[in-house]
Structure formats: structure tokens, C-alpha cells
Amino acid sequence: MPGFKIPVQSPKETGLDSCKASKPSDYDQNLVPLYNIESVRSYRWLFQTLLPYNSTFAPASFKSQSAGNHLIYLKKCDRPSVEFDEIPIHNGPRVMYRPGKMKMNTINLEFYEILGPSTYVDGPAIRTYEWLKKLMFDSSKGVYGKYKDYTFDASLHLLDGMGFIVHTYTLYGCMPLKVTPLELNYEQDAINTVTATIRYTDYKETKPG
């Protein structure tokens, strides 16, 4: 990484004793990062294709007063991750553990609340509520929707400094669990946000090429 010279292997692993190395050339230069290697930056990313936030998706049951691609109002989002439950195995005074059921952790999408040209139009929140209360569960009728109608796929791309995709997370079967607006406070002047918690069934990671 820029500004760092971190050996990939220790001197002991390379057969070189650090006490005897008198100058950088004593080490194999192939074992340290090049000066032009760059780290991934947390502000270079693109979340897309989650249809409930896109104006191209508007079936009769999902009409919103706010149009446009609301994913451009994302402030931040989590990367998908997985964890395993632990199964304890008792063996005398000792306890060993084995992996149990695997689950996908939810992700949070935090949107900026936006204003329309003349009236208040919080597009991301409206879209999330409609996704919850019209497609997933129709509160007026008290019935759940069809699974295929309220689950959608999405993509999270990590970008390099030129805007090219270097890593992609593809999330399958996304659905909203809750909507959390930012609290209101007369003593603060922060920009309002609304957070949508998204559940997904699985994900995969890919790289170009």
C-alpha cells in the first residue's frame, strides 16, 4: 500500500535472520508490495439493480409518487457477510466446537431523505414502505404476497480510482425487514436519513475476468 513496506513473509520464513540483515537489499524484493499498489477505498462503490428503488420497476401494485433511481441517494451500505452457529461438544472437562447452521447477516442501506421541487417527497422511505406493506404484506387485506413478487436480486460493486469494477457482491432474494428513520432533534442540524434493513437468502463474490 502507498506509504508502507510490509513484508509478505517474515525473515524467518524466508531464511533471512533479521539480526543479520544490514540493508533492504538483503531481503527478496518480491516479498514486499510494490509502491504502486493501492488499497480499496470505502467511498468507491456502487449499489444497483434493486428494483423497488428504480423507476423502471412500477407494476400496478407498486406505484410511487416519487420517480427516479433512488439508489443514487444512498449514503452508506453494509457489505454482505455470513456467520455460523456453534455446536458445543462436551468431552470431559473440555468443550470443543463445530460449525452449525449458517446464516446470512442482514445489511443496512442508509438513504438521504430528499425533497422534491415543491413538496416533501421522501422517495427511498416511500419505496421501502410500499415494498413492505404492499408487495410483501398487504396490511389492508391482512395477507402476504407471493415470494417471487417481493424478493429481488441486487449487486454491490467495489470500484478502483478510475471507476472500474474490481469486486462484485451479488445478493439473491432481497426483502426488507424494517425501516428506521433518523430521530428528529432541535439541537442538531444533521441531514436526515432513513435506513432500510435488508434480508437476503444468499450471495456470491466475483471479480472481473
**Basic shape:** globular
The CATH topology of the largest domain comes to Elongation Factor Tu (Ef-tu), domain 3
Number of strands: 11
Low-confidence stretches: none
Helical content class: 10-25%
Helix-strand topology string: HEEEEEHEEHEEEE
Write the layout of secondary structure elements.
Elements: H1 11-14, E1 45-48, E2 74-77, E3 82-91, E4 94-104, E5 107-112, H2 123-136, E6 137-138, E7 143-144, H3 147-150, E8 152-159, E9 165-181, E10 193-199, E11 202-206
Antiparallel strand pairs: 1-8, 2-5, 3-4, 5-10, 6-7, 8-9, 9-10, 9-11
Describe this structure in words.
The chain folds into two domains: 1-39, no CATH class; 45-206, Elongation Factor Tu (Ef-tu), domain 3 (Beta Barrel). It contains three helices and eleven strands, in the order αβββββαββαββββ. The chain has helices at residues 11-14, 123-136, 147-150; strands at residues 45-48, 74-77, 82-91, 94-104, 107-112, 137-138, 143-144, 152-159, 165-181, 193-199, 202-206. The strands form three sheets. Strands 1, 2, 5, 8, 9, 10 and 11 form a seven-stranded antiparallel sheet that branches.
